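tool_call: predict_structure(chain=1)
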Amino acid sequence: MNFSIVRLLSLTLAAGFCVAQSPPRIEDIRGKTILLFTPHPDDDAFCCAGTIAQLADNGNKIRIVLYTNDDKGSYDLDMTSERLARIRKAEEEEGNRITGIPKENLIWLGHHDGMLEYVDSRRLVEQATEVIRRYRPDIVFTVDPGADCVRWHKTDHRMAAMNTLDAIRAAEWHLYFPNQRLQLGLEPWKVPAMYFFYVTEKDANVFVNIDRTLDRKLDASLAHVSQFEPAINKYRPDWAPQDRAKAREELKSLILRRNGHYVEAYRYATEFNQF
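tool_result:
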């Protein structure tokens, strides 16, 4: 192999992550510390609730880190941002109760819905870096920065994806945010493994069979009543049976199927390359 090809290969690898040849089966992961960074309350349910329920059943320590309070997404003209934030918080707690995550394990970073792009970037990275150094996760779940809807549409998703990656990098090196070590006693931490959700199917390299936790995923998603019709147009805290049944079938139809099974897809990677 000539030098130019070796150099090209090195640059290609440097642009991404090391990808393990055989990612561990999520169904077999036990006794680990896991952080899931999500742009909004509800994304963790829609993307990963079937997987998170299995990881919780296996005795893993799981914390959900929420960048925003999701206080803007309602068409109800009588709704206020403050009230909506309280509603979404309660829905997030209920959804995670269903998947097996206690409300004490929800970490709220407190930013407004749709506004992550306008928050000071250094502040955001420092917040997420502190969380990583404090809890020292074996695995981080976060939004895949390469998904089409992330690159071209959802600004909070795009910011959450890139900010979390920046924090994973920063957490490893003690000269990033040295105040955290000097004042808070938080040592550097190198995240061993990452699972990216909202991934395009062509980029996915892990598919988790969620047949046995499918109902919990659907129930956790439906706990977010205010996100669905008719409550998104005129808020009500509960479901009419026919509306719930319709929303459940719509949600179920959107879940990826593979080889006859319901699955959740991820892109698994192990670390940043240091070139």
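agent: The chain has one domain: 26-272. Proceeding to next step.
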